Amino acid sequence: MIYSTVSFVRCRGALKNADLTFNFSISYRSPALTDNRYTSYQFFLYETVTEQREKGKTFDQIAEWLNKKGYLSVRGKKFKGNHVHSILKKKRLKDEKLERKYPEEWSDFSLEVVDKTLVNMFEL
Question: What is the largest CA-CA distance in the chain?
Fold first, then answer.
């Protein structure tokens, strides 16, 4: 980012017309800036599977229960135990990714002062 403005700079007790330019960059990285949200159906499946696991059911039992209730996977297939396991695993991995912290990266910065006294003398 470069920011420039016309300003007055004090030089040897006098105010001089000058351009000031401040140069720097900041890099900020966050997984929360990407759009990786669950659909309402995906979240429903996650909550349902979590509730069934809390009741002590295995992945295969949950898959059978979901199939009996008429639910289909996000891709429209019948459930198997590995699909149920994948629902929990992917949600856990996504949550870990969203909570990950990255350090900010600041570049070196510089301040440039260009004295406009001579330029302004010729404009008169």
Answer: 89
Strand pairing partners for 70?
none
Q: Which residues, 6+ apart, have CB-to-CB distance to 29 below 8 Å?
A: 102
17 in the same domain as 69 = no
Residues 106-122 pLDDT 10s: 777 777 766 666 555 55
In percent, how much of the chain has pLDDT > 70?
65
Q: Look at the chain and report how many structural domains it folds into.
A: 2
pTM above 0.85, yes or no: no
Nearest to 74 by CA among 94, 90, 52: 90
**For residue 1, is pLDDT > 50?**
no
Q: Look at residue 38 and give its three-state secondary structure.
A: coil
**Cα–Cα distance, 112 to 86 (Å, whole number):** 56
CB 74 within 8 A of CB 49: no
Regarding whether 49 and 85 lie in a shared domain, the answer is yes
Q: Are residues 34 and 75 in the same domain?
A: yes
